[in-house]
Amino acid sequence: MDRLTEMEAFASVVDNGGFTEAARKLGVSKSAISKHVAALEARLGARLLDRTTRRVSPTEIGLAYYDRATQVLDEAAAADDMVTSLQSEPTGTLRLSASIDFGAQHLPDALSGFLKKFPDMRIHMVLDNRPVDLLSDRFDAALRIGNLSDSSLRARKLTTIQMAMVAAPEYLAEHGTPTRIEDLTHHNLLHYSTEPSDTFWRIKSPTGEDRQIRVGGRLTVNDGLSLVRSAEVGLGIAYLPCFLYYKSVAEGRLVKVLPDLPVDERNVQVVYQPGQFIQPKLRVFIDYLVEYFRNKGNEVW
Predict the structure, then answer these.
(1) Residue 3: which of 64, 72, 50 has the closest Cα?
(2) What proportions of the chain, in percent to the nearest 5, are helix, strand and coil?
(3) Cβ–Cβ < 8 Å for 145, 270
(4) What is the pLDDT of residue 81?
(5) Which helix (H) or strand (E) holds 172?
(6) Based on the number of CB atoms within 10 Å of its own CB, is 72 exposed (0-12), middle (13-18) or buried (19 or more)?
(7) Same domain assignment for residues 70 and 103
(8) What average pLDDT score do residues 269-289 get?
(9) Is residue 183 domain-shared with residue 244, that is, in the same domain?
């Protein structure tokens, strides 16, 4: 006889205080409930219920068994729900966080395709250069660039971006073009940061060593497009991701500075809370983003 059926019959008797009500709740006969409970007690070799003419109550052993049995039944129900949800179309609202610059430039196209494919889904996207806390801020996922500050999060790589120093040709003509990393200390370095206290550029030397360059410029901006414009009008040298500088470089408004340095590449990742079971709406969204950026390749810049 099925163990889960026996457990369910026994738990229902305890929950409802008797065989008659348990049978009604489960939609079976009273005799069927009695047979399941009797079979369970026989298999375990223990009396689980005290039966009187007035009431039915669990024995001490029965009460301990009830606690474990209800856990097993809850897990079984959750497993059934998981299979059902995995076979159905995802629905509901997904809350997504991303940086202003990357999100504004590259997520609308991705989200357009996703929402067309899954018409019962809704996206609430919040663009903010502040790194959010997924749990306390109630986000399902976030796009992050570079190393993760919270190693407990799960992550999937979407694409890779390149960092470069750029400046307007007019600025370099007036102030000189740096030929070594050390030359940067004599220039106005425009800082792109969400943390005003973080006043260093981290770049690689020609030998591959990590170097920290203190930013000596007079302008710190947490908005990438504003910093690009500041560099274009000749305020100094900016250190930017490729999705911000590529168009300005292609059109000649900016040129790369120290272009022979090792390429500084950083991963763009979608991060989410760890767990054994990922909600279907989040699972299909992450899979879609991974495929979207894989198909776009370098076209995204």
Answers:
(1) 72
(2) 45, 25, 30
(3) no
(4) 66
(5) helix 169-175
(6) middle
(7) no
(8) 87
(9) yes
